[in-house]
Design a protein that fits this description.
It is a single chain. This protein is of the alpha+beta class and 789 residues long. It folds into four domains: 217 residues, Multidrug efflux transporter AcrB transmembrane fold (Up-down Bundle), CATH 1.20.1640; 141 residues, no CATH class; 175 residues, Multidrug efflux transporter AcrB transmembrane domain (Multidrug efflux transporter AcrB transmembrane fold, Up-down Bundle), CATH 1.20.1640; 143 residues, no CATH class. It is built from 26 helices and nine strands. The strands form three sheets. Strands 7-8-6-9 form a four-stranded antiparallel beta sheet. It has a three-stranded antiparallel beta sheet with strand order 4-1-5. Strand 2 and strand 3 form a beta hairpin. Helix 2 packs antiparallel against helix 13. The longest helix has 36 residues. The chain is elongated and about 105 Å long. The two termini are 16 Å apart.
């Protein structure tokens, strides 16, 4: 049957009448001033489009860490002392021809060192390699303690000098840390400054890694050496370098969705206007970001995909209803007005729900996630205007082509056998069976999600595929060096000038012994290792003196000439560095718990044991923050979106029917993450929140149409069938189209983009199935169980 398409409201009389008056007023204002509306959007698009051209990729070490966490507060307090173990690059210079202790290779290593030294953003005072003055050796001889630079001042490249360098490397205990175990490569440790000390501007990671690629990696590759670079900055640089690939996938997704949309409606006018409006939404979003002073960091660079997907999801509803109206003889202007009246309330509600899904990410105290939330929320804000106002006006001018109308007539004359079978799902027995199956799936998914971990579950950088350049470089370092790249730093603090007293040294020694027993801790380095060696050295190398002394003079003497990375100038902070086997979530959790257990067991008095710094310590803080915030975020998502849905339908039963399928999808998504070996982290956490926000759109549109047909006197099954013929087709098309669009991400060189794509595919499909099957089944049992036939 062909029924009027604008809904009849049966809710409380006061608020709906006021709301309907607002809709009527907006409709008259919008369609009575169509030219002004178009001029406004044209001017706004030009201004924001020009602003979008100045948008640049943006990344920051400080935004990647939870600055409000106590671990990070401790790190920032002592950042100057801890910098060499936190935001640091390791540049591996390999000699493919053999040993590094040759005249030619050492000269090349010196040139690499000098090139790196002058690159902006490098903390030059803490740079360390075989050639830097802070690379020192020491040994005990019959004549006493001797020390010097690894590459001596009198080095001349002769055979004798080279042999001296080899001995000095061994004396300095640099094998496995700065020199490979097989002597075929050497490391330059490059701490980075977060801000340029001269300009005060944040470090440009894109410019830094580009300089390293051109001035170091490519330049010295031509000289016959192999350069490998490992560290946070290189990860960010490689992600930014992949922006062109991401743009290519965006174009591929747009092309695929355009083709599918045309195949669905067979109207080039509607297709062109819809895609143009969705692209305009993305351009305006990027322009607003630029005007507000934001950039696109590597983790929010995929947000434009999601905004485009949201736009398509809502625009398809508009096209579908517009075609239905015009197939009944309405002119484009009248069809567009009716479509606006029918979709304005549910469409705005759905977009608000989308925004909530993004905004709740703000509860996670990690800058990159909060920026993603702001970026996406701006996109949804723009979408409200482009989808709710611009698109109806444009459609009132272009209408639907004759071929599109023929497609709609063909669709309307169909008997819809598939949808008739789907509509039977609301019969009590079938609905109860479907709900029972859903409960079983929920139980299975809930059991599987119990193994969901927080953080990374693999070695290397999980953002990239195992065969990526970065992960191959990281694997080389792990295979050829003893010292791990995963460093967890505990800060041992004392009153000024007390760090070398016996009581402090004894407590720190007990802590180190305790931590060496923790699985995953490979070695420990600290001030107290060096002091013990110095005491030994100053006592003729006799092993019986390799212990701490209660004599302050002996202890202070042992602290003299200790490298700056082991203690601050006031002798009040002594970092204890733990070198870990990996940075997996379980390893980090064990270390955190071990330090906490020790601190609770022993009375430290004036001494403090603070966590944590180093790349592994910062990641542990990130995992803890995400672990504490994840449940809060999900609760907020469901509670606030439920309130939005309740405000739309004024029924707790309807709200439950719409929200229950979304919870099932969320649980199943987390269960799949366990099977995929994915942890909850910066790259995957937003997908869970976004899936709920985007998924509720389907249910809101579909139930809105069901409600409209119920007001016309139809029973629930008939109303559901009629809703399937109109909104149901667009819901199914949208879910499948968006799933196919993001499925192309599986081909990306970025593993995190491929993982996000797969998770979004599952969420789009499951949310679509939940809206078309489970939601009506629940509604029929909860509300219409006596009125379904």
């Amino acid at each position: 049957m062909n029924a009027p398409l604008h809904p009849v409201d049966h809710r409380a009389p006061l608020t709906p009448s006021a709301l309907q008056r607002a809709v009527d007023f907006t409709e008259r204002l919008l369609f009575g001033n169509r030219l002004l509306v178009l001029v406004f959007f044209i001017l706004a698009s030009l201004v924001l489009g020009i602003a979008a051209l100045s948008l640049r990729p943006d990344a920051s070490f400080s935004r990647m860490i939870p600055t409000g966490h106590p671990f990070i507060a401790n790190y920032l307090k002592f950042e100057d002392v801890l910098r060499p173990q936190s935001n640091v690059l390791r540049i591996v210079v390999e000699n493919p021809k053999g040993d590094i202790v040759t005249k030619d290779f050492l000269e090349t290593l010196r040139e690499v060192n000098d090139k790196v030294f002058y690159i902006p953003g490098v903390d030059r005072s803490n740079l360390k390699s075989l050639w830097t003055p802070n690379a020192l050796w020491a040994e005990v001889t019959t004549e006493g303690l001797r020390a010097g630079r690894v590459i001596p001042d009198g080095y001349d490249g002769s055979a004798a000098s080279l042999e001296q360098v080899r001995r000095n490397i061994q004396r300095a205990n640099m094998i496995g840390s700065f020199v490979a175990n097989d002597f075929r490569s050497a490391v330059i440790r490059v701490p980075l400054l977060e801000r340029d000390p001269q300009t005060g501007q944040p470090l440009d990671y894109g410019a830094l890694t580009q300089a390293l690629d051109t001035q170091v990696r490519e330049h010295f590759a031509a000289q016959g050496v192999t350069i490998r670079i490992i560290g946070f900055a290189q990860i960010i640089g490689d992600l930014l370098a992949a922006a062109s690939d991401i743009a290519l996938f965006f174009a591929l997704t747009v092309g695929l969705i355009t083709a599918l949309l045309y195949g669905y409606c067979r109207c080039w006018r509607s297709t062109a206007v819809t895609v143009l409006t969705c692209l305009l939404t993305v351009v305006c979003q990027l322009g607003l970001l630029s005007l507000l002073g934001y950039g696109l960091d590597p983790y929010s660079i995929l947000v434009p995909f999601l905004i485009f997907a949201i736009g398509i999801s809502h625009a398809v509803q508009n096209i579908n209803l517009m075609m239905s109206e015009m197939s009944q003889g309405a002119l484009p202007i009248e069809a567009s007005r009716r479509t606006f009246r029918a979709l304005f309330i549910p469409g705005t509600t759905a977009l608000l729900a989308d925004a909530v899904g993004f905004i709740t990410l703000l509860v996670i105290d990690i800058g990159v996630i909060q920026q993603l939330a702001i970026t996406a929320s701006i996109g949804v804000f723009v979408a409200i205007f482009t989808k709710m106002f611009l698109l109806p006006v444009l459609m009132s001018y272009v209408g639907v082509s004759p071929r599109g109308l023929r497609q709609q007539h063909k669709r309307s004359s169909s008997s819809w056998p598939l949808f008739r079978r789907v509509a039977s799902i609301v019969e009590p027995r079938r609905a109860a069976a479907l709900v029972a199956i859903s409960l079983v799936l929920l139980g299975v998914g809930y059991q599987a999600r119990q193994d969901l971990k927080i953080g990374d579950l693999d070695k290397g950088a999980p953002e990239f595929r195992p065969q990526s350049r970065y992960n191959l470089d990281n694997a080389y370092l792990l295979d050829h060096y003893t010292t791990s790249t995963d460093v967890y730093v505990v800060m041992f603090t004392t009153p000024p000038e007390q760090c070398s007293r016996f009581a402090a040294a004894d407590l720190a020694n007990q802590l180190e012994q305790h931590l060496r027993q923790v699985p995953g801790v490979e070695s420990v380095q600290s001030l107290y290792n060096v002091m013990r060696f110095n005491i030994l050295a100053r006592n003729e190398g006799n092993p019986k003196w390799a212990e701490f002394s209660r004599d302050p003079f002996v202890m202070n003497n042992a602290r003299s000439n200790v490298p700056a990375e082991f203690v601050d100038p006031n002798c009040s902070v002594a970092p204890i560095s733990l070198y870990l086997a990996d940075h997996k979530a379980q390893t980090l959790t064990q270390v955190v718990e071990a330090v906490q257990t020790f601190s609770q067991r022993y009375d430290t008095g004036d001494f403090q044991i603070l966590q944590a710094a180093g790349n592994a310590g910062i990641e542990a803080a990130t995992n803890i923050t995400i672990g504490h915030s994840e449940k809060t975020m999900l609760i907020l998502v469901f509670v606030i979106i439920s309130l939005v849905v309740w405000c739309e339908f004024r029924s707790l039963k309807v709200t439950f029917a719409l929200m229950a399928p979304l919870y099932l999808s969320t649980v199943l998504c987390e269960a799949v993450m366990v099977q995929m070996g994915l942890g909850v982290k910066v790259a995957t956490l937003p997908v869970i929140a976004l899936g709920v926000g985007i998924g509720v759109d389907y249910g809101i549109y579909l139930y809105s149409r069901i409600e409209a047909f119920l007001h016309q006197g139809l029973r629930f099954r008939a109303a559901f069938f009629e809703a399937l013929k109109t909104t149901g087709t667009s819901v199914a098309f949208t879910g499948i189209t968006l799933a196919l669009g993001v499925a192309t991400w599986s081909l990306s060189v970025l593993k995190f983009q491929a993982d996000m794509g797969l998770l979004l595919v599952l969420l789009f499909v499951w949310n679509m199935v939940g809206a078309l099957l489970l939601m009506p089944a629940l509604a029929s049992l909860l509300i219409f169980n006596k009125n379904t036939r």
